[in-house]
Design brief:
This protein has one helix and 56 strands. By secondary structure, it is an all-beta fold. The chain folds into two domains: 360 residues, 7 Propeller (Methylamine Dehydrogenase, Chain H), CATH 2.130.10.30; 348 residues, Methylamine Dehydrogenase, Chain H, CATH 2.130.10.30. Strand 50 and strand 51 form a beta hairpin. It is elongated. The two termini are 37 Å apart.
């Protein structure tokens, strides 16, 4: 039995926004998702492409042939405006309309003049500029702005439409004088809609997929689809074709062994209307199933459902449209060989069906209803350590995601790759209530109160009872404690039990564990003194706790961080902040900040060379000094050398070092007073890290700015930015 690949694309408008003359006005990029045989690719509004699933031929485009169940960024720093996923390869267009392809190159499917596979984008030869690109199993077609169709790759069944069966390693014009506005490539055939809205197909026709009434004879040139209908969208699958008529009615023709043509006969060689009265806006054809979207974005699928690709929660084939479960509204949908993916109106990717290669963007298992791809949507909690170059976040459901530096296994994604420029799910499938990144490790507490840590354990910061090693997935900390939160510091960690008692573990060179010794610990030990805390925070050889009364205590190194007018360190908790009653406490590198009940911010410590204390000077202080500006803050976060805070209205302000744009005000100028973060965004939480900052909106969208050396801004590329950019899903 031949393998089916199941890729199809529909309207040219869905893939062309932003294409054309690069010297003209920059058009907005429309997000898109594309399902291939066993991989999937996603185009973001920022023009970055991420792919996941099978990567045996390099079709994920990240420079490797290692498959991935989570999105990985396509290499090459290309700003894409369109994306297509073929059998085992992918293609995209940049803003100029230049085409790039990567993955398997049998018979020249990549169009670069060779038969050599490549795992990074390779420019299609010929210098043509395309308005759209579509991919089949082993062939590709592009459409220029003037409506001329070009195809390349395998031509064994005449799917290139060039009047012969010769494979083409570079783009070759389709025969005839037709002017198209949309193309669709299937397993061994290709179809298009002309500017007059007529449909033409060419190539293999064993199951009647050309729709001209003459099955099973193939055609080496475009032939008109019978019936006299006009169409607005078309999609080509394994051995069938589907299209949306101008009336909105769906029609299919070709193979129908599993109901993929939306009717009951075994096959049709002319268009037959899909069962029911659903009015479609676009349509997609996969291996042996098809899907369509209504004008309000609701999804219906039909055909084979062995793997749940119909998305209705069952695994029974459907001979007519069946509503996809979940009630989600989608902007675009794409059917693969045995899976389906769609993009919601707010750009969140969902997939369902077969997942043998991770093409659903999640752990290896099939799902029968729409399930979010590993990525960041609906964030409830954001976390960055003052010394950390990675970010972690929790969704409203408690799912954990991390991105950025991974040199010590910090991300918990079962990877030893040094960095991830996109959010990646923490392995284990647990639901967490809190999470905290450290320098090269991360800790979190599940909703059941169980503590887990991952990353480098060379300093015993994971608390697992042993020293050394790297844990790339969460490991349970020792001691059997039930915790409410954990704070990860430089080389140590601390947690709060449900009683409010504090426990710490890891290095203890300055007494940062607070157990009255300087002995490092591989598992949690109680902090001396019997105090209970409502909040615990950690930094560089320093820990502090805030009691329910608002009284602050610190232990460990003290070069002014205690705020008690001394430089006397302590191996047990000592009163801090000169008696201020605080509602919030945060530790930076060499300094501490807090808020009082009025919303006024105070900072103190020896480190103020960049103005991170926000008091209008660059001198350190041994006691709290108010942050200038008269702002009323609701949240504050101290980072490596800068500080950020949110007003009660959600406006973001930052101050201190700004060499990488971490203040978010569009400059790289440091300042010792608060400056407003650029843009009109309002946030519910904000965090400052080592040279960068992130914040989350009320809608759960994360924005970051500043240093992006390790991809900690989560935008799929590396560098730095001086204003907020959205973390990609």
């Amino acid at each position: 039995m031949r393998s089916s690949w199941g890729v199809s694309f529909f309207l040219i408008a869905a893939a062309t926004s932003g294409c054309g003359d690069s010297t003209g006005p920059r058009q907005a990029i429309q997000p898109a998702i594309a399902a291939g045989n066993a991989h999937t690719c996603l185009l973001s509004r920022a023009g970055t492409v991420t792919c996941w699933g099978d990567n045996s031929a390099g079709q994920l485009g990240n420079g490797s042939t290692t498959s991935s169940e989570h999105p990985v960024p396509v290499g090459g720093a290309i700003e894409f405006t369109a994306i297509a996923a073929g059998g085992s390869f992918s293609c995209g267009l940049d803003r100029s309309g230049a085409a790039y392809c990567w993955g398997v190159n049998f018979s020249g499917a990549l169009g670069n003049g060779t038969n050599t596979n490549t795992s990074i984008p390779s420019a299609v030869s010929g210098g043509l500029r395309f308005a759209s690109v579509v991919t089949g199993t082993l062939h590709t077609c592009g459409l220029t702005q003037d409506g001329t169709a070009y195809c390349w790759g395998s031509n064994v069944l005449q799917q290139l439409g060039t009047g012969d069966t010769v494979h083409r390693l570079v783009p070759t014009a389709v025969s005839g004088a037709l002017s198209f506005k949309a193309l669709a490539a299937g397993y061994d055939h290709t179809c298009g809609i002309t500017k007059a809205d007529d449909a033409y197909c060419w190539g293999g026709n064993a199951q009647g997929q050309l729709g001209n009434g003459s099955a099973p004879s193939p055609s080496e040139v475009p032939v008109a689809v019978s019936g006299g209908l006009t169409f607005t969208a078309i999609a080509a699958g394994d051995g069938h074709t589907c299209a949306v008529a101008s009336s909105g009615a769906g029609y299919c023709w070709g193979g129908n062994s599993a109901g993929q043509a939306g009717n009951f006969s075994s096959q049709y060689n002319t268009p037959i209307q899909i069962l029911g009265t659903t009015v479609f806006s676009n349509i997609t054809a996969g291996g042996r199933h098809s899907c369509g979207l209504t004008r309000t974005g609701f999804a219906f699928c039909w055909g084979a459902d062995n793997n749940g690709e119909v998305g209705n929660g069952a695994t029974l084939q459907q001979y007519g449209p069946s509503a996809v479960s979940g009630g989600l509204s989608f902007r675009t949908i794409s059917a693969g060989s045995g899976h389906t993916c769609a993009l919601t109106s707010n750009d969140a990717p969902y997939c369902w069906g077969s997942n043998g290669s991770g093409q659903l963007g999640r752990a290896i298992e099939r799902v029968t209803t729409p399930t979010p791809v590993n990525g960041l949507t609906g964030v409830a909690t954001l976390a960055i350590g003052a010394t950390s170059s990675h970010v972690c976040a929790l969704t409203t459901a408690g799912a954990a995601f991390c991105w950025g530096n991974n040199t010590g296994g910090d991300l918990g994604n079962n990877s030893t790759l040094p960095a991830s420029a996109l959010p990646d799910s923490v392995r284990g499938g647990r639901a967490y209530r809190s999470i905290s990144p450290g320098l090269s490790h991360t800790c979190a507490v599940t909703t059941a109160g169980v503590g887990y840590c991952w990353g480098s354990n060379g300093t015993w910061a994971l608390g697992v009872g042993t020293g050394g090693g790297v844990y790339t997935q969460p490991a349970q900390i020792g001691g059997g404690l039930t915790l409410t939160s954990i704070a990860s510091g430089l080389w140590h960690s601390c947690g709060l039990a449900t009683s409010g008692a504090a426990y710490c573990w890891g290095t203890n060179v300055a007494g940062e564990l607070g157990d009255s010794t300087a002995t490092s610990r591989t598992a949690p030990v109680p902090v001396s003194g019997g105090l209970t805390f409502s909040t615990i925070v950690t930094g560089v050889f320093l820990s502090c706790g805030l009691r329910a009364s608002g009284a602050a205590y610190c232990w460990g190194t003290n070069s002014g961080e205690f705020g008690d007018s001394t430089r006397v360190s302590s191996v047990v908790p000592k009163p801090a902040a000169s008696g201020l009653t605080l509602t919030t406490l945060t530790i930076g590198e060499g300094y501490v900040c807090g808020l009082v009940s009025s919303g006024a911010a105070y900072c103190w410590g020896f480190a103020n060379q960049f103005g991170q204390l926000g008091n209008g000077s660059n001198s350190g202080t041994l006691f709290p000094i108010p942050v200038v500006g008269g702002h009323t803050f609701a949240a504050i976060s101290a980072g490596g050398g800068h500080t950020c805070a949110l007003t009660t209205a959600g406006a973001a302000y930052c101050w201190g070092g700004n060499n990488s744009g971490q203040l978010g005000n569009g400059t790289t100028d440091s300042t010792n007073v608060p400056v407003a973060v650029s843009g009109s965004l309002t946030f519910t939480a904000i965090q400052a890290g080592a040279g960068f900052s992130c914040a989350v909106t009320a809608a759960g969208t994360v924005y970051c700015w500043g240093n992006d050396y390790f991809g900690q801004l989560g935008r799929g590329v590396y560098g730095f930015v001086t204003e907020p950019v959205a973390v990609l899903p």
